[in-house]
Amino acid sequence: MPRYAASAGMNSRRLGHKVVAQRPNRTVIAERMFMKFLVAFAVAFAATTFAARAECYGEAEYQVCSDSYVDPNGDIHARSYDTEGNDYSLDTESRQLPGGGNEVTSSDSEGNSYSIKSWSDSAGSHTVDSEGNECTITPLGTMIGCGQ
């Protein structure tokens, strides 16, 4: 039996002059699984953090480029820029509302913003946006507001 059995996390015992390998003990298995988890987490974190890759279009000296990424909170960030120094960015963030539901807010580098809140309760499903538009769909399917 090769002597690396003990160094590979295997318990081994000597029977006469022969080394017999046994199954790895639970501690070794847990350590291996934890290390695999750490490696997978590091790879996933690096992929989401550094996933922004610019795509550029254009001919000769003028090009327009854009890139986007999703941060660890699930928020989306996008940016476009050109070879003349023009720059534009858009950030979208989402959060849960204290009483339930969600709010999504988008804002750009020119000071524009838009948000929409959505939630459900016994009266139906509702949305309200930052421009004052409201929509409710009742449990029976009746639409109230909703641009009608």
For the structure shown, list the relevant keywords.
alpha+beta, 9-stranded antiparallel sheet, two-stranded antiparallel sheet, 148 residues
What do you see in this structure?
Helices cover 19% and strands 43% of the residues. The chain has 148 residues and is of the alpha+beta class. The strands form 2 sheets. Strands 3-4-5-6-7-8-9-10-11 form a 9-stranded antiparallel sheet, with no helix packed on it. The chain has a two-stranded antiparallel sheet with strand order 1-2. It is elongated, with a radius of gyration of 28 Å. The chain starts with a helix and ends with a strand.
Strand content: 35-45%
Question: How helical, in percent, are the residues?
Answer: 10-25%
Shape descriptor: elongated
Strand-and-helix sequence, N→C?
HEEHEEEEEEEEE
Task: Give the distance, in angstroms, between the N- and C-terminal Cα atoms.
Answer: 80 Å
List the helices and strands and how they pair.
Layout: H1 4-7, E1 12-15, E2 18-21, H2 26-49, E3 55-57, E4 64-70, E5 76-82, E6 87-96, E7 102-108, E8 113-121, E9 124-129, E10 134-137, E11 143-145
Antiparallel strand pairs: 1-2, 3-4, 4-5, 5-6, 6-7, 7-8, 8-9, 9-10, 10-11
Summarize the structure.
With 148 residues, the chain is an alpha+beta fold. The chain has two helices and eleven strands; from the N terminus they run H-E-E-H-E-E-E-E-E-E-E-E-E.
